[in-house]
Amino acid sequence: MSEAYIVSALRTAGGRRGGRLAGWHPVDLAATLIDGLVARTKASPETVDDVILGCVGQVGEQAANVARNAVLASSLPESVPGTSVDRQCGSSQQALHFAAQAVMSGSMDIVIAGGVESMTRVPMGSPLTLAKKADMGIYMSSGIRQRYPQTELFSQFEGAEMVAAKYGIERGALDEFALESHQRAIRATQTGAFDDEILPVSVLDPDSGEQIVHTVDEGIRFDATLDSIASVKLLAENGRISAATASQICDGASGMMVVSEAGLKRLGVEPLARIHHMSVMGHDPVIMLEAPLPATHRALDRAGMTIDDIDLFEVNEAFAPIPLAWLQSTGADPERMNVNGGAIALGHPLGASGTKLMTTLVHGLKARGGRYGLQTMCEGGGMANVTIIERL
Predict the structure, then answer these.
(1) Is 378 annotated in the active site?
(2) Annotated catalytic residue, options 55, 97, 250, 378
(3) Is the pTM of this model over 0.90?
């Protein structure tokens, strides 16, 4: 079977809710990211075979196939198609898998995979909220209720609390992990670790009213302390998780160009990494967010690898208990996981997070001279994608 190579990987710096990226229409933000990938590789726009974008809130400005609309707003010719993916938080990681599968099958040679989410302009849960207002019903059908009678709605918040309880992770450990996420993100920012992966975009400075260039993740708390994190109110009575130990609402876009060997020759570029393994797994939708644990074990087994073969890990910090439980389950070295911080500090732009994390992983392996990297993330409905790459 043919190989799939990553030749370009970019992301925008995250924007806080109502922050610097709030003025960007998500279609235009995704289009700018697409143009950045094309420019980085000096590819002729017409050589792109397809654009696959992840997006969770596919309503309003993100409705009507946001990927195709991003193509039409970009420098790509209208002959380039586009399709949108919803695998919840893993949407753009799944977009990467689809792109890799396309070039590995030989049906395509150059594909852009990525994601976009404006959580300011299309608030989280908008499809459900609007459906409720229009009295259109909810996804919990009678068939689902018969199978899972113990739950009214599947809840990520409740699932995260269940994971914390199951693995014996107390609030103090969650608060300490959140502080470490900010501290790692601060170090990465101050040492320029993100410079090569961030696509600068022009934004309106709300303070000065002037156009400035957005290059620093807006969610990082440069003044974070353990006391300030510990003072944040818990999300549930008698719970363990607070807003400070959960991922931040974030606006952003991310993406990568994935090519076959023929695509490499056509572009005349050197690959950054090779897709070594990709899989996805379903799990219990009630505890929901535990899926990355068994999915990682299965992925390593299928790849014929052990956890010690992996140099860097990106495990999405949707809620602090998830990466901490993942460390318990896998026995991975915590010094190799989320080395530049995670979603608690940098934000979680839902449909864009998959290729956002992968972009950081690709560049992190290059900077540290590592060979293999593994990415996984919990997803709504009880699923998890796992991707293993080899730096070249």
Answers:
(1) yes
(2) 378
(3) yes
